[in-house]
Fold this sequence. Notes:
Elements: H1 12-15, H2 24-27, H3 39-66, H4 72-78, H5 84-89, H6 96-115, H7 120-123, E1 130-136, E2 142-147, H8 149-167, H9 174-177, H10 179-203, H11 217-223, E3 230-231, E4 235-236, H12 237-243, H13 246-265, H14 270-288, H15 290-293, H16 297-300, H17 306-319, H18 322-329, H19 336-365, E5 379-385, E6 391-397, H20 401-404, H21 408-422, H22 433-457, H23 459-467
Antiparallel strand pairs: 1-2, 3-4, 5-6
Helix pairs in contact: 3-17, 6-10, 10-17, 12-17, 13-14, 13-17, 13-18, 14-18, 14-19, 19-21, 21-22, 22-23
The structure holds NADPH dihydro-nicotinamide-adenine-dinucleotide phosphate.
Amino acid sequence: MATHLSTEKKPAEGRKHQNMQNDTKASQGQWGRAWEVDWFSLASILFLLMFAPLIVYYFIIVCAQYQCSLTDPLLDLLTGNKHLSDIWNSTPTLTYRAAVIYSLWVTFQVVLYLFIPDFCHKFLPGYVGGVQEGAVTPAGVVNKYEINGLQAWIITHVLWFANGFCFHFFSPTIIFDNWIPLLWCANILGYAVSTFAMIKGYFFPTNAKDCKFTGNFFYDYMMGIEFNPRIGRWFDFKLFFNGRPGIVAWTLINLSFAAKQQELYGQVTNSMILVNVLQGIYVLDFFWNEAWYLKTIDICHDHFGWYLGWGDCVWLPYLYTLQGLYLVYHPVQLCTAHAVGVLMLGLLGYYIFRMTNHQKDLFRRTSGNCRIWGKKPQYIECSYTSVDGTKYHSKLMTSGFWGWARHFNYTGDLMGSLAYCLACGFEHLLPYFYIVYMTILLTHRCLRDEHRCSSKYGKDWKRYTAAVPYRLLPGIF
Ligand code: NDP
C-alpha cells in the first residue's frame, strides 16, 4: 500500500488559485505548537509537572496499600490515623532486580526497533510496514521512518508465551511482582529522556528550523522544543517512545495481571479476560496501523518534551492498565448480560474509532478519489503555508463519520474506554479514572487541534466548521 501524505503539494499555477488563498502572514509558520504562552497554559503545565507524578503514585499506592479505595488514604491522613511518611515508608523502593528487568526491557525494544527491519509487510496482506514517510513538518521536511512496531510486538509476545509455556526463565507475574520498583525505573527514564531532549533542542537539534522556543522554561520542557528529535538517521524519539516501550508493554502488563489472578485465586475472571481482549485489540490496532499513526497529531504536530517523554514511559503504562491492576485486587466475575454488554460497547466503540480513522486515511491517501459509504466524498478545499513560504493545498472531508462530527474517532475511542471501566463492575471508582481522563484528554486534544487547524487553514477552517458544526456528539457538543 502506498504511503499516505496528509497534504499534497501542487504545481505553482495552483498556488495562484484565488478562492484558496488564505492570509499568508496569518498562517505562515503558525501551525504546530504555540510560540507564545498564555497564563492558563502556563498554570496547567505547572500543575501537571507537579501533580502528574503524584497522581500516578497515588493510584498505584492505593491499590498496593488500600485495596484500590481512592478515599481511604485521604481519610487516614485527615483523621491523623496515618502520616504521609507512613505511606511513603511502606512503599517499595527501587531494587536492583527491577533496574535489571527495566534496562533489559528497554534495550530489547531498542534492538527490535533499530536493528530488525520489518518483514511483516512482506507476508501480511494489507499491512503497511518498512520504510514510510511522515507528514510535511512546518519547516517543510518529510521524515522517513522504519515501521516495524507490529513485528516488535509479535516477537515480544511470542517470547513471552514461549517463556510462560516452555522455558520458565521467569514467572509471568514478574511485572506485577515488581510493579512499584519498576515505577521508579520508568520515572528515571521518563525524566532522563525529557531532559536530554531539551538539552538537545538547544545544543544539537536534528532540524533547527523545526524547533520552537517560547522563552518559558517550563512550557518548553513540558511541550518540547524539537519537533522530531533523532539520534542518527533512524532513532526517532517520538516514534520509539510513543509506541515502544509503553504500548508494547501494555498488553504484557495485562497478561501479567491475569497471571497474578490465576496464581492468587486459581482462575482468571471474565472481566480480566474482557479487559485483556478489548485493550489487546486496541494495542494490536495501533501497531497494525503504525504507518497511519505517522499522520496523527502526536507525530505531525506535537513537539517532543516531558508531555510525550515522561507520559509514554510512566503515565501510559501505569494508568492505562489500572483496570487490570484493580482486577488483581478485586476479581470481578460478571454475569453474562453484563459481560456481553461490555463486549458489545467495546467492539462498537472500536468499530467507530477504526472506521472514522480509516475514512480520513482513505480520503487523504486517494486525494478524495474514493467512496465513503458508497458515495463520492464531499469536502472543502483549503490551503496553508509552511515556514519557507511554500503554499500547500489540502482537503477537509465532510462525508461519512466526518460529516457527523469533527472528531467522531474520539467518540468511538471514548466508548471503548468506557467499556474497559464497566468491565470492572461498580464497587470502586478507581477503574473509572480512565474514562474521566480520556474524556479530558480527548476534549482538550480536540480543542487544541481545532485551534491549530484554525491557524493553519484560516477562513477555510471556518467554512469547514460551518459545514460540520459539532465536535464529538452530533447535536450536543
Ligand atoms: P485525528 O486523526 O482526528 O487527526 C486530526 C487531524 O486530521 C487534523 O489536525 C487535520 O490535520 C486532519 N483533519 C481534521 N479534520 C479533517 C477532515 N474533515 N478531513 C480530513 N482531515 C481532517 O486526531 P489524532 O491524531 O488526535 O487522533 C488519532 C486517533 O488516535 C484518534 O482516533 C484518537 O482517538 C486516538 N488517540 C488515542 C489516544 C490514547 O491515549 N488512547 C491519545 C490520542 C489519540 P491536517 O493538518 O492534516 O489537515
